[in-house]
């Protein structure tokens, strides 16, 4: 396989320790005989506006009645996000939709060169219960702090998160696990399963969980 590794996709702000652990996991594929190439700017910019527009359009319409009549049944953080959801104009929504088509085409071209794209699964390890967003990522909200996953919700590509190796090599200094995200070209889920199985064969993390 020819594999791309990207620490930040061109815009993310990962915790350095998390990025280092994920990169170490990505380099394992070179030992497995793959051609691993580091690429920085996978995307021209953070597609968060596209994702937020999509989230608002879908969840906002779906939960319109509950938002208006049964707000107390919703998670407070979700309700806060949705209070302005239905204010989005059709022009704004379709503008982001056309940008989404452009992003899909950009990823299609990228995956003419690569079988898989590897990234950290999340920009940080687990944070304290009761918090809606990581404290080290101020300005992000419950929808957009997951830098690495929402782009591929937009492009519709298959993706998976696997443990970035075996304990203790894949843990942060605080003893927290890190995930490695694997993204394949459209309709090529089998490539993810093959790569994940090969990785687990040499990094058998399940043996370390009791």
Give a quick set of tags describing it:
210 residues; alpha/beta; Amidase signature (AS) enzymes; 5-stranded mixed sheet; 5 strands; globular
Structure write-up:
The protein has 7 helices and 5 strands; from the N terminus they run E-H-E-H-H-H-H-E-H-E-E-H. With 210 residues, the chain is an alpha/beta fold. The protein has a single domain (2-208), classed as Amidase signature (AS) enzymes (Alpha-Beta Complex).
Global geometry: globular
Assembly form of the protein? single chain
State the strand order across the main sheet: 2-1-3-5-4
Q: Based on the structure given, which CATH architecture is correct?
A: Alpha-Beta Complex
- Give the count of structural domains: 1
Q: What integer is the average pLDDT?
A: 91
Largest sheet, in brief, is: 5 strands, mixed
- % residues in beta strands: 5-15%
CATH topology: Amidase signature (AS) enzymes
Topology as H/E string? EHEHHHHEHEEH
The parts where pLDDT drops under 50 for at least 5 residues are none
Strand segment count: 5
Q: CATH class, please?
A: Alpha Beta
What does the radius of gyration come to?
18 Å
Q: CATH superfamily assignment?
A: Amidase signature (AS) domain
Structural class: alpha/beta
What is the helix fraction of residues, given as a range?
40-55%
- Total of helices: 7
């Amino acid at each position: 396989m020819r594999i791309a590794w990207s620490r930040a996709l061109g815009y993310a702000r990962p915790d350095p320790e998390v990025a280092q652990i994920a990169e170490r996991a990505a380099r394992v594929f070179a030992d497995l005989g793959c051609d691993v190439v580091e690429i920085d700017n996978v995307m021209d910019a953070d597609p968060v506006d596209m994702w937020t527009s999509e989230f608002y359009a879908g969840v906002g319409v779906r939960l319109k009645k509950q938002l208006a009549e049964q707000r107390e049944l919703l998670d407070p953080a979700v309700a806060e996000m949705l209070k302005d959801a239905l204010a989005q104009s059709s022009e704004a929504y379709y503008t982001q939709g056309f940008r989404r088509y452009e992003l899909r085409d950009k990823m299609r071209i990228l995956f003419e060169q690569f079988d898989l794209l590897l990234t950290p699964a999340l920009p940080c390890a687990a944070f304290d219960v009761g918090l809606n967003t990581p404290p080290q990522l101020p300005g992000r909200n419950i929808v957009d702090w997951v830098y690495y996953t929402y782009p591929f919700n937009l492009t519709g590509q298959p993706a998976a998160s696997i443990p970035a190796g075996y304990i203790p090599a894949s843990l942060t200094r605080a003893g927290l696990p890190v995930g490695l995200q694997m993204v394949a070209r459209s309709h090529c889920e089998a490539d993810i399963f093959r790569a994940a199985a090969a990785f687990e064969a040499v990094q058998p993390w399940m043996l370390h969980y009791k």
